[in-house]
Amino acid sequence: MERIGIIGSGRAGSALGAALASAGHPVTGVTARSQASLDRAARLLPDVPVLSPAEVTGRADVVLVAVPDSAIREVAQSLPLTAGQYLVHLSGAHGLSVLLPSAATPVALHPPMTFTGDQPDLSAITFTATAPDDARPVVKRLVKALGAELQWVAEEKRAQYHAGVVHGANHLTTLLVQAFAVLREAGVTDPAATLRPLLAATLDNTLRSGHDALTGPVARGDVETVAAHLAVLRGRTAGTYAELARATVELAAADGRLERGTAERFLEVLAVRPAVQPAGQPAGQPETGEAPR
Q1: Are 113 and 134 in contact (CB under 8 A)?
Q2: Cβ burial, residue 272 (10 Å; 0-12/13-18/19+)
């Protein structure tokens, strides 16, 4: 099995290193600078020596650069790599270009999940990789050892891939934080408890069925309910609601669930939304036009 060296003992690097070690890959060294990184390495990689970047690189066949996105290029160019090694970063946003030029074979290997600092079960992950053809067997072996799945994304599609991941995951948090605030204003003391069963069912259904899982007032053609919502929502939440409702109308109209006339009525209602009010100015004045994009 390939020897693994880890540059950076943050949450992702430490977790992936621990998982590879458990799968039988020798992890021969890790770098750690902060006390938090040293503590994490001691907890997740207790038998792995903490070394300098050059020492880690010299002992490894596969060098994982597990550093913040903004530091990948600088760190990669500072390592004493050889043609027989593989240089792997874990960023979703970057492809291979951020690792070039390098004597080693470049690989982008993204685990689309949130790491908490503990050792996660990676078997449920589908890693996304970009790599030259001659590196693909090594990437497949690493992912298979973790019990995970693998899919490939072309270099020119990395930004598009990452946009989809961020839009689906990070923006979900933004949406829920806004929804929590609206529910609290309505007198709901535990918004998470209220939404949890609905969210769990919706997520499961959507992951299985895609747009066929859509329910709610737009899917039912209930224009009056959407208008009532817009009448009570304010600020940034009103803009978010209107923009997502427009996208939902387009989705429901495209698959035939909404008649053209109903879709047009929705879009007329959604063209008028409460304005984002400056600090100190009372809310309630409507604004006509597109929501901010």
Answers
A1: no
A2: middle
CB atoms near residue 101 (< 10 Å) = 8
Per the CB < 8 A criterion, the answer to whether 15 and 120 are in contact is yes
* pLDDT above 50 (res 281): no
E strand or H helix that includes residue 64: strand 62-65
Q: Where are the domains of the chain?
A: 4-153, 160-288
Helices (H) and strands (E) in the chain, counts: 11, 9
What number of residues does the chain have?
293
Query: What is the pLDDT at residue 114?
Result: 85
Number of neighbouring beta carbons within 10 Å of residue 163? 12
Assess contact for 108 and 158: CB atoms under 8 A.
yes
Listed in sequence order, the DSSP H helices in 59-211 are: 72-78, 136-145, 158-185, 191-209
Q: What is the pLDDT of residues 190-235, one digit of tens each?
A: 999 999 999 999 999 999 999 999 999 999 999 999 999 999 998 9
For residues 240 and 178, the answer to whether their CB atoms sit within 8 Å is: yes
Residue 253 near residue 266 (C-beta atoms within 8 A) = no
What pLDDT, in 10s, does the model give residues 83-136? 999 999 999 999 999 999 999 999 999 999 988 777 778 888 999 999 999 999
CATH number of 4-153: 3.40.50.720
At 71, the amino acid letter reads A
Burial 282-293 (b: 16+ CB within 10 A, else e): eeeeeeeeebee
User: Which one, of 101, 58, 49, lies nearest residue 76 by Cα?
Assistant: 101
What amino acid occupies position 205?
N
> What contacts 31, CB < 8 A, 6 or more positions away?
6, 7, 8, 9, 50, 51, 52, 53, 56
